[in-house]
Amino acid sequence: MHTTTRRCFMLQAAATAGATLSAASVGAQPARIDEKDPQAVALGYRHDTNQVDKVKFPRHAASQRCDNCQLYQAKATDPWGGCPLFGTRQVAGPGWCSAWVRKG
Ligand code: SF4
Predict the structure, then answer these.
(1) Which one of 3, 34, 79, 85 is least enclosed by Cβ atoms within 10 Å?
(2) Can you give the residue range of the structural domain that contains 47?
(3) Pocket test for ligand 1, best of 64, 66, 89, 96 (most atoms within 8 A of CB)
């Protein structure tokens, strides 16, 4: 009986420690821009360049993506990265907004 109680305590302690570590890891992730954010809406930002409104943005091309934009602050292979237009929030590599500029 005593051994079972001790085992339960150890399992609970391990689970709690794991949950704390997971929360810390999640908390360390930079926030991602919400497509419904007013600034994102104003710039026509979408997480997927294929979802861009072609009527509103007739000059958009599917080959234009955040990960080949001059303002993308991450490696082209990173799925998410910074963009100065959205402060500390990250944009999607396959995303797009109307401020897209070809990487030089
Ligand atoms: S400026 Fe470039 S990197 Fe930033 S959201 Fe627009 S397309 Fe993506």
Answers:
(1) 3
(2) 31-104
(3) 66
